[in-house]
Amino acid sequence: MVGNTIETGHQPSAETSKNYTVPFATLTSLFFMWGFITSMNDILIPHLKELFSLSYLQSMLVQFCFFGAYFIGSVCYFIISYYKGDPINKIGYKNGMLLGLVVSALGCFLFYPASVLSIYGLFLGALFILGLGFTLLQIAANPYVSLLGDEKSASSRLNLAQAFNSLGTTIAPILGGFLIFELFSNNGVLSADATKTPYIAFTIIFLVVAFIVYKINLPSFKSDETEHGGLGAFKFPQLRLGILGIFFYVGGEVSIGSFMINYLAHEDIMNIPESVSKNYLALYWGGAMIGRFLGSISLNQTLSASKKLIYMIGVAIAIFALLFSIVDLSFIQISAFLGFIVLNLAGFFIGKSAPARTLAIFAIVNMVLVLTSIFTFGPVAMWTLLSVGLFNSIMFSNIFTLSIAGLGRYTSQGSSLLVMAILGGAVVPLIQGALADSIGIHHSFIVPVICYGYILFYGIFCAKNVKLSELP
């Protein structure tokens, strides 16, 4: 609680307040899809870099256009909410998600002309449209998950939904890498056509999911308040600071993922080809999946400490086994990852199920891991950077739920501001790209260290000022 008593102001309709299983399952499919497509950018970057002979800075325009669309789309949304009232309150969360799915399908379809004409600028345009679609999905879906139940367990639910997002980001480097680097690569010859068929398939999938969402019954949430417009969301300090928190978190996470394949190919690190390094990239995103499933359990206020321990260990083992089954690596090659999973488990128990405290602890760990990678070489540098994904896991969910806690009628407006801050995924990789061109890729990772430094500050602030346990 910050200042006065915080009230949510959102209520489900009476007939839909009892069971949220189907709506939540539907939401998890959306989180999976945008995780998968977003992680495909990490495959596109080295592919397009080599295809068009780009510098690091130029190749990071992929992320700049994709995540820049989040900023542009969210600014437009916020302007509308300021002058006309919150659009989501007017059209509903379901229609907001449907619109996002259709725009996302259009963005994927535009990869077809980009591939046929083989023009880098057209690829960037397609990514921008795709990012606009994801902006609408993020604005509608993230707060919708938070509203599907008690606000005190919102972090747990959003971590679970984000875990399925991470399942998508984990599978994408393996499947996407196979499609682009192998199946559609014209026998190893670089070609823009390698992206054509996969993204047409994604277009069809988005449209099918849109049809399913249209057909199912989703509960309707609306505010009991009648006040609209204005800059009401800005009066909440946890939101103002959380906007920067999302900016730096997304920037740090995306920047590391974007450079991972090129980093592992560097002669001072592992000197391995793209076809192999895509498997290690899957571990980076897979670590986020492990951490998010563990976070969902850890932040669940209804479980005892002993049950949490049992469930978390069991889930960690199961997901590690899943990762081992999908990556083309031996057990010896990935066994070091187990030690970092144990460290991740320890971090959750030190955090004691408190979202803000856990956020601060994980930020400290990530700063140490990235700094270690900067000042070491070979396997140590590789594993410390790969393991950052484990501790990235709960950051978005915890920052998001802490930021919108108690915003009431300003929840969607606040959500649009937080989604606007995903601009970090456009700006931070570009900054690191420029730095990598000037001082080398190895030491350019000082940029994510700075990002995690701010997240540490935000976690400490919320631990002192935002008390979710005091919310009604």
From TrEMBL:
Keyword Transmembrane set for record: yes
Entry GO MF terms: transmembrane transporter activity
Principal location listed in the UniProt entry: membrane
Membrane topology qualifier: Multi-pass membrane protein
Localization per record: Cell inner membrane
Transmembrane stretches, start-end: 20-40, 60-83, 95-112, 158-179, 199-218, 239-261, 281-297, 309-326, 332-351, 358-377, 383-405, 417-435, 441-461
CDD domains: MFS_FucP_like
Pfam families with a match to the protein in the record: MFS_1
Keywords recorded for this protein, A-Z: Cell membrane, Membrane, Transmembrane, Transmembrane helix
GO terms under cellular component: plasma membrane
InterPro entries in alphabetical order: MFS, MFS_trans_sf, MFS_TsgA-like
Name of the protein in its database record: Glucose/galactose transporter family protein
Upper classification of the organism: Bacteria, Pseudomonadati, Bacteroidota, Sphingobacteriia, Sphingobacteriales
